[in-house]
Automatic annotation (TrEMBL):
Its cofactor is Mg(2+). Catalyzes the reversible reaction in which hydroxymethyl group from 5,10-methylenetetrahydrofolate is transferred onto alpha-ketoisovalerate to form ketopantoate. It is found in: Cytoplasm. Homodecamer; pentamer of dimers. The gene is panB. It holds the Pfam family Pantoate_transf. 3-methyl-2-oxobutanoate binds at residues 58-59, 97, 127. Keywords: Cytoplasm, Magnesium, Metal-binding, Methyltransferase, Pantothenate biosynthesis, Transferase. One of its GO terms (biological process) is pantothenate biosynthetic process. InterPro entries: Pantoate_hydroxy_MeTrfase (IPR003700), Pyrv/PenolPyrv_kinase-like_dom (IPR015813), Pyrv_kinase-like_dom_sf (IPR040442). It comes from Thermoleophilum album. It catalyses: (6R)-5,10-methylene-5,6,7,8-tetrahydrofolate + 3-methyl-2-oxobutanoate + H2O = 2-dehydropantoate + (6S)-5,6,7,8-tetrahydrofolate. The keyword Hydrolase does not apply. GO terms for molecular function: 3-methyl-2-oxobutanoate hydroxymethyltransferase activity; magnesium ion binding; methyltransferase activity. This is 3-methyl-2-oxobutanoate hydroxymethyltransferase.
Length: 309
């Protein structure tokens, strides 16, 4: 066999990414890459592309479940998606996004929910939103032995209280509040913190004062890593995409075009062609014809094997 690798051959699988891997990469100044994934094929794509972390984001509510915000998605819906992602993933660290309402009520609720992500969906870590009351929840989950990722700035689960999907920390006082949240989440034991939709000036101050890796989405280039929503970067999401999104492909267009061709070919009888058909061996086909003729000679109604209608 030729030693030349085929373009379609799966890439060699790396060692699983751990929390130490992430800290080491940050220390070396190597950017961390995270993408969201919501099912088996998107997980396979993320793995093949070589990302460091995969987030089963509650953005699934909007990207794959068709809700108008991230608020309605249930814990069971998130667990089903996370389990599918787990089955497609080996190398990247898998983080499950705790959905709205599944962790706020008490430390006990937060730990129980985080444990379901680990036990039932096979996640390596969980993510929760906000500082303030979430800091204590983060600490409780960390104390239960489950790594926690924080998330400050624009926190979509409580966007209504923030005035909608708008960037955060743009006044000096608000910036200080976001910085405090990040510092408190690090103190609570978070292994990384997502910074969403905040001005670069604020990101720089947070990065100076927090030693765990920061992962930005609309936070500028100064974070230890970047995250984007899978459907946004692939041009697979039909709704409004935030300003921080860069499209690396236009897959929705390609998908519509492909399904449209399928419609045309079925309607024009161009599909299926010979190569898509099954065949009987010629002798079996001849025997079938013989059997059919024999039946037609001896039976009045050849095709009614059962009771007549
Ligand atoms: N597909 C998708 N991608 C995301 O990044 C994402 C979701 N869904 N769902 C949950 C949240 C919502 N996100 C968003 C949505 C919009 C803006 C945005 O464009 N904000 C602008 C305009 C706000 C306004 O109208 O005032 C801004 O300048 O902040 C930011 C983050 C991020 N998250
Ligand atoms: C954008 C990331 C950080 C997220 O929380 C999500 O996709 O739900
Ligand atoms: Mg989220």
């Amino acid at each position: 066999m030729s030693a030349a690798p085929l373009a379609s051959a799966p890439p060699p699988k790396g060692r699983p990414v751990t929390l130490s891997t992430l800290a080491e990469k940050k220390a070396l100044g190597e950017p961390l890459v995270m993408v969201t994934a919501y099912d088996y094929p998107s997980a396979r794509v993320a793995e093949a592309a070589g990302v460091d972390l995969v987030l089963v984001g509650d953005s699934a509510a909007m990207t794959v479940l068709g809700y108008e915000s991230t608020v309605p998605v249930s814990l069971d819906e998130m667990l089903m998606l996370a389990a599918a992602v787990r089955r497609g993933l080996r190398t990247p660290l898998l983080v499950g996004d705790l959905p709205f309402g599944s962790y706020e009520r008490s430390n006990e609720q937060a730990v129980a929910t985080a444990q379901r992500f680990v036990k039932e969906a096979g996640c390596d870590a969980v993510k929760l939103e906000r500082g303030g009351p979430s800091v204590e929840r983060a600490r409780a989950i960390v104390d239960a032995g489950i790594p926690v990722m924080g998330h400050v700035g624009l926190t979509p689960q409580t966007a209504t209280a923030l005035g909608g999907y708008r960037s955060q920390g743009r006044t000096a006082e608000q910036a200080l509040a976001v910085l405090r949240d990040a510092i408190e989440l690090e103190r609570a034991g978070c292994f990384a913190i997502v910074l969403e939709a905040i001005p670069r000036e604020l990101t720089i101050e947070i990065v100076k004062r927090v030693s765990v890796p920061t992962i930005g989405i609309g936070a500028g280039p100064d974070t230890a890593g970047q995250v984007l929503v899978f459907h946004d970067l692939l041009g697979l999401f039909e709704g409004h995409t935030p300003r921080f999104v860069k499209r690396y492909a236009n897959l929705r267009e390609q998908m519509v075009a492909a399904v449209r061709r399928f419609c045309e070919e079925v309607r024009g009888r161009a599909y299926p062609a010979d190569e898509h058909c099954y065949e009987m061996a010629p002798d079996e086909s001849a025997r079938l014809q013989a059997l059919l003729s024999a039946q037609e000679e001896h039976v009045e109604e050849p095709f009614t094997g059962g009771p007549s209608l």
